[in-house]
């Protein structure tokens, strides 16, 4: 399947059109296309294969955004039926919300692992589909080949609630994705959101209560950060390559 620049960019426009209320501007296809075309060390056939990975990444991102959209819609429907001074999330309502929440997280990690194939090829000329392994290898790199990329990853690695830390793990242990797959469910709890208020908001509880975030805020920021990561890493790759040519 051959894809040219216009076809890849059109996928960006479609995502922006469908999910503009979530992420105002999406340019994953544009940035991945530039990254693939800019590299002079890979042959035409490899570029075609990598562009196909870019399309699959787009599809995974769309599924992530759709799951997030469904989660918020289901939450809205649930809260309309509740006395928000004492909302009671359980049974099918809880299961439905957990389904869409965990789907959002799993498709996000899926998208990153798909795009990791492109990033591994660009950086190390090897086949690997683990985003976690890719970022750890870059962060441990001791030469000056990936200055901009390493600086960016170091910056987001400092943010405890950033999608990067949640999806790739930290000193706390397993990543959020691994916890969902191997250990437990996402924990959702209603609580007062400001002192003196009788109404409650839904919060997502992470790492056994170490991190508690307003659910709506978490979901919106999470999907935005995943999309931003893919575009930013692509851009940093190009900056590093230009720097190395000087």
Question: What would you note in describing this structure?
Answer:
With 246 residues, the protein is mainly alpha-helical. The protein is built from nine helices and three strands. Strand 2 and strand 3 (211-214) form a beta hairpin. This is Cthe-2314-like HEPN domain-containing protein. It comes from Suilimivivens aceti.
In sequence order, what are the helices and strands, one letter per element? HHHHHHHHEEEH
Give the proportion of residues in helices: 55-70%
Largest sheet: 3 strands, antiparallel
Uncertain segments are none
Question: How big a fraction of the residues is strand?
Answer: 5-15%
Assign the structural class, choosing from mainly alpha, mainly beta, alpha/beta, alpha+beta, or little secondary structure: mainly alpha
What distance lies between the first and last C-alpha atoms, to the nearest angstrom?
Answer: 35 Å
Distinct helical segment count? 9
CA radius of gyration is 19 Å
Instruction: Give the mean pLDDT.
Output: 88
Global outline:
elongated
Organism: Suilimivivens aceti
Protein name: Cthe-2314-like HEPN domain-containing protein
